[in-house]
Write a structure and sequence with these properties.
Blueprint: H1 11-16, E1 31-37, E2 43-49, H2 51-54, E3 59-63, E4 73-74, E5 81-82, E6 88-89, E7 95-101, H3 104-111, E8 115-119, H4 127-133, E9 141-145, H5 148-153, E10 157-165, E11 177-182, E12 188-192, H6 197-208, E13 215-219, H7 234-247, E14 251-254, H8 257-263, E15 270-278, E16 284-294, H9 302-311, E17 321-329, H10 344-362, H11 366-373, H12 393-403, H13 406-419, E18 423-436, E19 445-452, E20 458-462, H14 471-483, E21 490-492, E22 495-496, H15 511-538, E23 546-548, E24 551-554, E25 557-560, H16 561-570, E26 576-582, E27 587-589, E28 594-596, E29 600-613, E30 619-628, H17 636-654, E31 686-691, H18 717-727, H19 742-754
Parallel strand pairs: 1-14, 12-13, 16-17, 20-21, 30-31
Antiparallel strand pairs: 1-7, 2-6, 2-8, 3-7, 4-5, 9-17, 10-15, 11-12, 11-14, 13-22, 15-16, 18-29, 19-20, 19-26, 23-24, 24-25, 27-28, 29-30
Helix pairs in contact: 6-7, 9-10, 10-11, 14-15, 15-16
Bound molecules: ligand MTE, pteridine-2,4(1H,3H)-dione and dioxothiomolybdenum(VI) ion.
């Protein structure tokens, strides 16, 4: 199986702007719907006055809670989100009505005329006040192991730290959008921008009171999801379907950037209180951490996000004793949700900060402290009891240190800092060990259908969605290689719950692992049949038939793939197959805090050099080096793109991106003028990404490893580098608030100078 550098199958369409997204194919007779919100951050809804809105030009219908005839609430885990608010207003964006009109402008105009009367007071507006008031969405999840008291008693040093990590907007270029139409037989067809078409279909069926089999959700492609469309696209489809049934016409619901940013959830802010004990050799001997996250108004996916944060508090480091607890606070903010990394970056950020304190205390380079602590053979049991198989943290770290020539880099930085008064440089290092699998074991399953046509072309349907990450390209690459065909002969169809049902979200970086394996099972079944057809014609054993260069080969001859497909059809041998996959060997007991939640782990390491301006607090990255374990990469170009994109997205989270809320929990950063995601100019000229060589992962499809989220975690190297640079301004310990805005960097420099 040869692997060439396949580009993203949609690369040309993306570049020319010809790629089609959900709302590019809205029928011309479609109506436009938009939400009317309570215009209040919380309390009890007493009345909704629709009179002015109803007489606005172009308005066709206005739907409210009174129009709900079956289930009235939705939500990915707990059904605690009203489709339309009829009692508690929990957050600013609470929807009280859906205004349907002939144009988007008319709908927006009318929606602004809806008047809701709300009485009472909102929930706490932020994590700290909710925690103080004891308002939570979950019970604590606790993982304890070993003997903390004994470990601390014999430790060389114990650090107490408080670490807060901020929110982050997903900022997909394509905002939320779905449109729906209803046929005469009552069946519902939805075209949606969602990572989870099955959940959307299920919730539409429940809210409309229909059998799931009558609801079909299709996903063409997304202009980015980043987790923001794992659960929070679902209501878009529900609203569109309700309105389509009510009016008998296709209806499109889309959020503009202000609505998207103002009304939808972000990455969860976290607060951590940590007690970390090290022995005299700078090895962690115990770690006790209390995590609280800001869940926002409803539960959404906050439970599993907290679980993943707890699982990644180990930072891929062997910690013999400890206690991790996590609890989700309830606030008036829009419900926070999945975001690339899914809690893991928040967990890693805590322990990475602690390791850096240890490095400073022991006078060791940060990479040396990582080296002494990462899982290695024999020091390889995670806090949750799983043995980390084939740990590669030390390998990626060693490679990235030599790739970046870190010793020389540190010498140069020291020389520079010795002669530069107002500008200082720093080097940051991080290792990211990321567990692959949904932590809820049942979600780790997938399905696919493969059709071979008599001309030898192949069409693949699988349950995953394409959001730019290259999933379809990877699946096409796998199937093409299985059949020995050029990738151009394999078409991956748009995702469709009518063809592959009961899917999981395309999330947890497992899209290729799960759907690729399911598609391979289907392809294997067809390949065996084709091999038998060809082998019979040659009088050889089918197991000796090879698929290569567009043909089937044996010791006695070759026939083209198309020729064999045609012969199979003539012999009435089926050319279609369905395949499924379920990850073996995973389970987790949440009460015991023990199990094997992950199929395997991925490993990455980064070295970053930054420069900080002491008068303005501005900084820039000068160099980034990354080594990432992608197993045997299925598509190296795509993996490289994922690593670069994820790292820069993580750097944005920790530096320039700052979601602001007012005292009611309302988002005030509603567009790119006030919310700064990184752009091409923020990427340094030296940005070197290497895939760990000879890294086959034997039990994963194509012997590859997942890549979508893990490298985002490596961005914790950026604040590490900033702290080193800030530390060069004076004698004090650098303590840096996040995101590391110029104001926070200046404050940290000030404190360091004062000692
Ligand atoms: N890459 C692009 N271009 N756009 C995205 O929205 N989402 C990320 C990652 N890479 C995303 C992306 C997230 S949050 C996940 S979980 C994975 O892609 C999902 O896809 P995969 O499982 O196929 O890797
Ligand atoms: N979604 C989910 C996820 O439901 N469970 C997970 O473990 C997960 N991990 C990463 C991203 N999304
Ligand atoms: Mo990604 S946060 O798992 O959608």
């Amino acid at each position: 199986m040869s692997r060439t550098e396949t580009a993203h199958l949609s690369a040309a369409l993306h570049a020319t702007g010809e790629a089609l997204y959900a709302d590019d194919c809205v029928p011309p007779d479609a109506l436009h719907a938009t939400l009317a919100i309570a215009q209040s951050a919380g309390g009890r809804l007493l009345a909704v006055d629709l009179r002015a809105a109803a007489v606005t030009d172009g308005v066709v219908a206005i739907l409210t809670a009174a129009d709900l005839k079956a289930r009235r609430t939705i939500g990915p885990i707990r059904h605690d989100e009203p489709v339309f608010t009829d009692a508690e207003v929990a957050t600013w964006g609470a929807p009280v009505a859906l205004v349907v009109a002939t144009t988007r402008e008319a709908a927006m105009q009318a929606a602004s005329q809806v008047v809701a009367t709300v009485e009472g007071s909102p929930l706490p507006p932020d994590l700290a006040s909710a925690d103080d008031a004891g308002i939570y969405l979950t019970d604590p999840h606790v993982i304890t192991w070993g003997d903390v008291a004994a470990a601390e008693a014999s430790a060389a040093i114990v650090f107490e730290s408080e670490v807060e990590t901020p929110a982050q907007d997903h900022f997909p270029l394509e905002t939320h959008a779905s449109w729906a139409s209803v046929s005469a037989d009552g069946s519902v067809h939805v075209v949606a921008s969602t990572q989870h078409p099955t959940e959307m279909a299920r919730e539409i069926a429940a809210v409309l009171g229909l059998p799931e089999a009558l609801v079909r959700v299709e996903v063409p492609r997304m202009g980015g999801g980043f987790g923001g469309k794992e659960s929070q696209s679902t209501p878009m489809g529900v609203w569109a379907a309700l309105a389509a049934r009510h009016t008998g016409r296709p209806v499109v619901v889309r959020f503009d950037r202000r609505q998207h940013m103002g009304w939808t959830g972000k990455r969860h802010p976290f607060r951590a209180r940590s007690r970390a004990a090290f022995d005299a050799t700078a090895r962690l001997v115990s770690h006790t951490v209390d995590l609280v996250s800001d869940g926002g108004a409803s539960l959404d996916l906050s439970g599993p996000v907290m679980d993943r944060a707890l699982f990644h508090l180990d930072a891929g480091c062997f910690t013999p004793n400890g206690r991790f607890t996590g609890r989700v606070a309830r606030t008036s903010r829009p419900s926070n949700t999945a975001f690339r990394g899914f809690g893991a970056p928040q967990g890693l950020a805590v322990t990475a900060t602690v390791l850096q304190r240890a490095a400073r205390h022991f006078g060791l380079p940060l990479e040396e402290v990582w080296r002494r602590n990462v899982y290695t053979e024999g020091r390889d049991v995670a806090p949750y009891g799983q043995v980390i198989e084939d740990p590669r943290g030390a390998a990626v770290l060693a490679r990235v240190c030599s790739q970046s020539d870190i010793e020389e880099l540190r010498r140069e930085v020291d020389r520079f800092n010795a002669s530069s008064v107002y500008v200082k440089r720093g080097v940051g290092v991080a290792v990211a060990t990321f567990g692959i699998s949904f932590t809820n074991a049942m979600l780790n399953q997938a399905g696919a259908v493969v059709n071979v046509y008599t001309d030898g072309s192949v069409r693949v349907h699988h349950g995953g969605t394409e959001m730019g990450q290259g999933l379809h390209t990877k699946v096409a690459t796998l199937i093409a290689a299985r059949f020995g065909l050029p990738i151009g002969r394999v078409i991956v169809a748009d995702t469709d719950t009518g063809i592959v049902p009961n899917t999981s979200a395309t999330a947890a970086s497992s899209g290729t692992d799960l759907n690729g394996a399911a598609a391979m099972h289907a392809a294997d079944a067809i390949a065996e049949r084709l091999a038998t057809v060809a082998a019979t014609s040659w009088g050889v054993d089918p197991s000796t038939v090879r698929f290569e260069d567009g043909s089937l080969h044996s010791a006695v001859g070759s026939r083209s793939f198309a020729d064999v497909a045609q012969a199979a059809w003539v012999q009435r041998v089926p050319l279609s197959a369905a395949g499924t996959y379920a990850t073996p060997g995973i389970q987790y007991d949440r009460v015991a805090g023990r199990g094997t939640p992950f199929a395997y782990h991925t490993f990455g390491a980064a070295v970053v050099e930054v420069e900080v301006h002491g008068l303005t607090g501005e900084h820039r990255m000068r160099r980034i080096d990354i080594v990432q374990d992608c197993g045997r990469s299925i598509a190296p170009l795509i993996d490289r793109g994922q690593i670069e994109g994820a790292f820069i997205q993580g750097a944005g989270w920790l530096t320039t991106e700052e979601v602001r809320y007012d005292g009611l929990g309302r988002v005030t950063t509603l567009g790119p003028s006030t919310y700064k995601i990184p752009s091409a100019g923020d990427v340094p000229a030296h940005f070197q990404v290497t895939l760990l060589p000879n890294a086959d992962a034997p039990r994963v499809v194509g012997h590859s490893k997942a890549v979508g989220e893990p490298p985002l975690n490596l961005a914790v190297a950026v604040p590490a580098a900033l702290r080193e640079a800030i530390g060069a301004f004076g004698p004090g310990e650098p303590i840096l608030g996040l995101p590391a805005s110029p104001e926070r960097i200046l404050a940290a420099i000030d404190a360091v100078r004062r000692g």
